Amino acid sequence: MPAKGKHRRPKPQRFTRSIAVAGTGGAALALPLMGATGAHAATTTSAPEKAVQSVPAAEKTAAEKSTSAKSARVTTYSVKSGDYLSKIAEEQDVTGGWKKIYRDNREAIGGNPSLIHPGLKLSLGEKATASGAGTAKSSTPSGTSSSSSSSSSSASSSSKESSATQSSDTSTSTGYGLPVTGGTIGTGYRVAGSMWSSGYHTGVDFVVPTGTTIKAVAAGTVVSAAYDGAYGNEVVIRHADGEYSQYAHMSQLSVSAGQTVTEGQQIGLSGATGNVTGPHLHFEIRTTPYYGSDVDPVAYLRSHGVTVG
Q1: What 3-state class would DSSP assign to 48?
Q2: pLDDT tens readout for residues 96-105
Q3: What CA–CA distance (Å, rounded) separates 171 from 174?
Q4: Do both 56 and 139 map to the same domain?
Q5: Do the strands 281-286 and 294-295 form a parallel or antiparallel pair, or are they unpaired?
Q6: How many domains is the chain built from?
Q7: What angle do CA 120, 218, 282 make, to 5 degrees?
Q8: Angstrom distance (rounded) from CA 175 to CA 187
Q9: Among candidates 249, 251, 252, 236, which has minimal Cα distance to 285?
Q10: Which residue among 4, 72, 101, 201 is least packed, with the fewest CB closer than 10 Å?
Q11: What CATH number should be reported for the domain holding residue 145?
Q12: 28: pLDDT confidence band, cut at 50, 70 and 90?
């Protein structure tokens, strides 16, 4: 009977493999050994439990990641040379524009949104307002010196930067200077053309890119600072000699009516607002604040010791 003995030996091995398969989920092979009820119980409870536990865990992880991403949408921007708030807002895609940036960083910028300087740190993002408001609320009641110290430091830094720029770029011994630095004259005074309502150009155009600092040519009082039709954003200043200077097509105004300004002080940024074909500064000298009282602006500046062109 050796053949039968050899034939029976493999059966326990197959039986062992059947149990092993059943242990890994092979219910059909295990049925003869453990019964149909036990097999179905193992099959129907283990898989759904895993599914129910794993799905919410994945959803929670995704939600946590989303919340984390939203809370992290705050960045610190370091101001570079040539920057201004509207430019930063556009390049960094800030919802709410330059006003939002100024609102969130007013303590660091100071009272004039145009007086930002290279190296100044600005907070940009959704939580900037909330964090800024929280700082203001906590520092005001307690009367701590940290807030005022930071403000004073920022204001001092802005003031020094502005003063240094004005001193090096615009100051003259006569108290008069150019309205822009580095600009070349495009269209001159009294150039005839049908594009102007008077039939001629009432000022001179300084060709400068958008965002160039525009400065008061002399000390005086701001008569108007607003949007004015074809001139776009304009500023008119009355000077001590009774003449008026006008600056048009600006992208941003830095002064308001009734404000006193000094020679070389920033009054706005150049642009292309109003009726223009490209960015530049339209500059006039007038005998009154109004259109039609223009005089030669180049001759006026030269008479006050300013080199033009």
Answers
A1: helix
A2: 888 888 888 8
A3: 8
A4: no
A5: antiparallel
A6: 3
A7: 80
A8: 26
A9: 236
A10: 4
A11: 3.10.350.10
A12: very low
